[in-house]
Amino acid sequence: MDTNVSILVEIPETLHQSFLNYIESRPDWDQDRVFSAALSLFLLQNRTTNDRQTARVYLDSLFKRPLEQV
């Protein structure tokens, strides 16, 4: 089973406002889903060592599916 980990980050205020606008206009997305999709896409684009699991997180985030153990 995958485990979730909480992180605390600081982002520029303008990025935060854009993030809030995105969330408000798309009620089916939440903060966790956006960050999972964004971080996993970044890691995929920068060729991490565990591409298959990272791709799974990305696709599950996009299609709002719960993560399952592979």
Give structural notes.
About 55% of the residues lie in helices and about 0% in strands. The mean pLDDT is about 85. It has a domain at about 30-70. The protein starts with 12 loop residues before the first helix and ends in an 8-residue tail after the last helix. The chain has helices spanning about 15-25, 30-45, 50-60. It contains three helices and no strands.
The number of E-state strands comes to: 0
Number of alpha- plus pi-helical segments: 3
Please give the share of residues in helix.
Answer: 55-70%
Structural class: mainly alpha
Q: What series of H and E elements makes up the topology? A: HHH
Determine the strand fraction and express it as a percent band. Answer: under 5%
The major β-sheet equals: none
Average residue pLDDT: 87
* Multimerization status: single chain
The best one-word shape is: globular
For the termini, the CA-CA separation is 9 Å
Q: Uncertain segments of ≥5 residues (pLDDT<50)?
A: none
- Radius of gyration over C-alpha positions, nearest whole angstrom: 13 Å
Give the helix/strand layout.
Blueprint: H1 13-25, H2 31-45, H3 51-62
Helix pairs in contact: 2-3
Summarize the model shown.
This protein has 70 residues and is mainly α. It contains three helices and no strands.
Keywords:
single chain; 70 residues; mainly alpha
